[in-house]
Amino acid sequence: MHPELTLILVLVGLIIGAILVRRGGMWQRCVFDAVAFLVVSGVLFNRAISPLSRPVGATPQAVDLLGVLLTAWWILCARLIVYLPRLLARRHSSRQSKLFSDLSAAAIFIVTAFIILNSVFDVPVKGLLATSGVVAIVLGLALQNSLSDVFSGIAVDLESPFGLGEDIELDGKTSGQVIEVNWRSIHVQTDAGDIAIIPNTLVAKSQIINRSRPTARRSGSVSVECANAISPEQILELLRQAALLCPLLLREPKATTSMVHIGAKRTTYTVSFYVSMSGQLTAAQSQLLVLIHRQLQFSNLLTPVPRSSDSINESSEKSFLTPEQMLLATSLFASLGRDAIRGLAASVVAKHLDPGQILFKQGDSGASLYMIAFGLLEVTTEQAQAEPLFLGYLGAGEYLGEVALATGKAYSATATARAHCLVYALSHVALVPLMAADETFAGAFERAVQASQSVIHRKIATYAAPVHASSEPLVQRIRDFLQRR
Questions:
Q1: How many domains does the chain have?
Q2: Which domain holds residue 135?
Q3: How is 407-449 classified by DSSP, letter by letter?
Q4: Which residues of 291-327 are buried (b: 16+ CB within 10 A; e: fewer)?
Q5: Are residues 423 and 413 in contact, defined by beta-carbon separation less than 8 angstroms?
Q6: Of 192, 197, 246, 271, which sits 20 to 30 A from 366 (CA to CA)?
């Protein structure tokens, strides 16, 4: 084969291969460059040509082809050197930016270009270097802001105050998740869902708070005001119970309650807490305020009546909702009229529980609906050869026992008072005539039982009795069971 034809085939193969792998992954391009580099090196070695010397051939065409081949050899060599820091940066991309790899790649290609001009094409580079110095000064003055961003980015990258995917806060103004770090700026997806592009110069001058280190846990607080006439001990206890009822709050560290300000008419209280991640903070604050409102509402403290000094630290039953008010406030009985509510209220039995006292145990048979007027119940379930499994808390305004009442199954959980509680118990005997006469109420009771078994917010009630599966309509099974009782 003609020597020049061999060089042409090698160059054509390099061009076709470069086009084919152009859109491939980094590893594919790296493998192609390595193979191409070995092929070109073999051709040069076979012709005893050094990459640092000018090509020599029998014809001018051969010299030109060898010059192109030497240029390809240097470019492939530079690309292989550049791939090493890029692959390392890619492996650690979640912790570091790619500034170092980009800058080192630029320096390597510039040096390679000067070597090609000097060694392959015999172009004097001293004049180019002198000229490039002047050009660099002009470009430096024109691009001083961009260069400032580059060097600020290098300084920030050396410090490594954050990484990709971490939550940060800059000067208390911009906060969110870092989604991109480049040579000029960082891209932050804010808590509001927007994309903030912040120059590295501003990042280097900002106070950076990394909300992902050492953990993603965040602290928060809410404040409420109550009338001075209300006992502070009672308010602090209600706030503590509301914090325990909030599922988004971490159990450890525990939420703390405190009285922070006493005014002429109202006192300010604060609940401080922790959540597992930044995205839960706003939802936790809103949920906690709702629970605090409910605790105060069911204790009749939203519009309090001033107390005398003799009763300021006492909890009387008059401070809580009456059985009739409790039934009206329970969604389960929303379809009933006032006469039916009064009839049910006459059958309600009030149960006062001290802290640690058990409302019902796992394995007990239940035939009553329990409505919590005040206090906090802890629901747990026993495990074989293990500590009881904590399921959650129930507080004022919630009810439990409807599943066991409807199915007749034994409780599969234990309800224990964790504060002074007032619980209203409604026996199945009072529900039998209503279930038989009021189709709307029967349907509402059926939906309540189904919700207790499916909705996550009511998962604790589900554990109080096993999930019952049957092809028979649930409302009919409820009626049959209640009538048998």
A1: 4
A2: 3-142
A3: H-PBPSSEEEESS-EEEEEEEHHHHHHHHHH-HHHHHHHHHHH
A4: bbebbbebbbbeebeebeeeeeeebeeebbbbbeebb
A5: no
A6: 246
